[in-house]
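pinned: reference chain
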Amino acid sequence: MDHELPDHPPLFFVLNGTSGGNDSSSTRQVINDTMTSAGRTFRLFVIGEPDDIAATVQRAVEAAQAQKGVVVAVGGDGTINAVANVALGRGCAFGAIPQGTFNYFGRTHGIPEDIHGALDDLLHGEPTPVQVGLVNDHVFLVNASVGLYPDLLEDREAFKQRYGRSRLVAMWSALVTAFGKHRYLDLEMDKEGERVHLRATSLFIGNNRLQLEQVGMPQAETVKQGQLAAIAVNHVGTMALLWLAARGAFGTLGDADYVTGFSFRRLVVASFGLLNKQSRTHQAGHPTGKVAKARRPIKVAADGEIMWLQTPLEFRVAPEPLLLVKRRTDAVAA
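pinned: its structure tokens
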């Protein structure tokens, strides 16, 4: 990948106008005023409907490639992921103006959460290689997961649409999901030639050092060394799940029982046997009850977005980095 960009490259912004959490009209005005004042060539691509995301991103990336410019994602994790997914595949320089709730990607790379600061950072930034995770060739910048966590995200979005966006609604939906009926995964994995078998409520793959540090996983440092981190929450009951969530909130998840963590560059999960929550009879590591081996697509969350992917799932570090335009600094926002 060519890390060279022309001086003052044109900027092609992809703005999610369907997002309920941001005032897209004011965001557009700030971008327009800032770029005009700086004398930079730019263009705005606004996503009008959820179904328009893929086509809009594709047009923006093609325009950036044609003019040797930078495609810039403006929005939450889902928007940033959608733009990065196409930019990586086309070798296009990438920028981000984070406007989500947690902004792990932006904070890890020192991008200001204030839009004025983020735009200034972009205008004075340099192309910097950034590690990307892949699940079946779909990009994730922060994390990817299967099992209970995608269900929790899906339920949370449904609650937000019905009751509004707030932390209280998010907590309520999480409790409803935890106490509801959910299945456990019987995982057969190939970790770079080593066979691993686990029964887990959820399998979480992390590509963000900041997020892993906050929950207390010792594998956080390996993300800086070109690896991904796996966290498997073992087969436990609802109250144990809530206790593990509390441990994560206090940054001590890595020391908790029922949690398995390891690092890797490539992990293939070939089998997803599904067990009902009530099926608790098992021998050490292997269920004695009937297990239905899943040969159909499975629900996967990547940077908060839900998709269905065909098994087996392959998690790996992308062979090429994402070329992120940012100020060269290792500082992480507090």
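why pinned: The longest helix spans residues 148-163. The radius of gyration is 21 Å.
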